[in-house]
Amino acid sequence: MKVLILNGSPRVNGNTSIAVNELVKTFEKEGIATEVCHIGNKDIRGCIACGKCSAQGRCVFDDAVNEIAAKFEQADGLVVASPVYYASANATLIACLDRLFYSSHFDKTMKVGASVVVARRGGCSSTFDELNKYFTISGMPVASSTYWNSVHGREAGEAEFDAEGMLTMRSLARNMSFLMKSIALGKEKYGLPDGEPWQPTHFIRDDLK
C-alpha cells in the first residue's frame, strides 16, 4: 500500500517538512510506502476553466499536476500538507489541488485523504477545513487523529518541539494506515459502494425568468 504526500511549503526543510517526516516514519513502521512531492516552490498556475481536460482526461498545462495525477491514481491515500498564510493554504498548493482534482477523471472513491496544517499561531482550523473539502467532494474518507491535524512552529525546526503536534502526526499516520488496510479488505469482500449518475442542479428557477 502507498500514500502520496504533497508538501505545499516553499521551504524544503521548514516546519511543514518536520510534520511530514513524522508521518513518513510512522507510515514506514505500519508497512505503508510513501512518496513525498514537494510542490510549494514549483511554478504551478491556476485553472483557467478551459474545459480541455474533459476531453483529454488530463490538464492542458503539462506540468507537475499531471505527474502528480498519475501518482495519485496509483496511491491508496493522499496527504496534503501546507503552511498557513492569512488563515489559508499556500496559493501554489491550492492551484495544484484545484487542477488535480478537476482534471483527473479516475475514480477516487475510498482513497483515504488527510490534511496537515502548520502555523506560527492561528489560522490552522480554517486551512484544515479548506483542504479537507477536496476529499469530501470526491468520495474519499478523511483520516482523523487525536486532535485536528495541526503543528505549530515559527522558526525552522521549532515544530520538533511541539510535542502534541508530533503526537497528532503519529496518531494520524497510524489511523490512516488502519483505515486504508480496512478499506482494502472491504473492497475484496464487498467491492466499492454502488454509484448513481451525476445529477447536477442549481438554484435558478425557470418560473422566475
UniProtKB/TrEMBL annotation:
<protein>
    <submittedName>
        <fullName>NADPH-dependent FMN reductase</fullName>
    </submittedName>
</protein>
<dbReference type="Pfam" id="PF03358">
    <property type="entry name" value="FMN_red"/>
</dbReference>
<feature type="domain" description="NADPH-dependent FMN reductase-like">
    <location>
        <begin position="1"/>
        <end position="151"/>
    </location>
</feature>
<dbReference type="InterPro" id="IPR051796">
    <property type="entry name" value="ISF_SsuE-like"/>
</dbReference>
<dbReference type="GO" id="GO:0016491">
    <property type="term" value="F:oxidoreductase activity"/>
</dbReference>
<keyword id="KW-0288">FMN</keyword>
<dbReference type="InterPro" id="IPR029039">
    <property type="entry name" value="Flavoprotein-like_sf"/>
</dbReference>
<dbReference type="InterPro" id="IPR005025">
    <property type="entry name" value="FMN_Rdtase-like_dom"/>
</dbReference>
<keyword id="KW-0285">Flavoprotein</keyword>
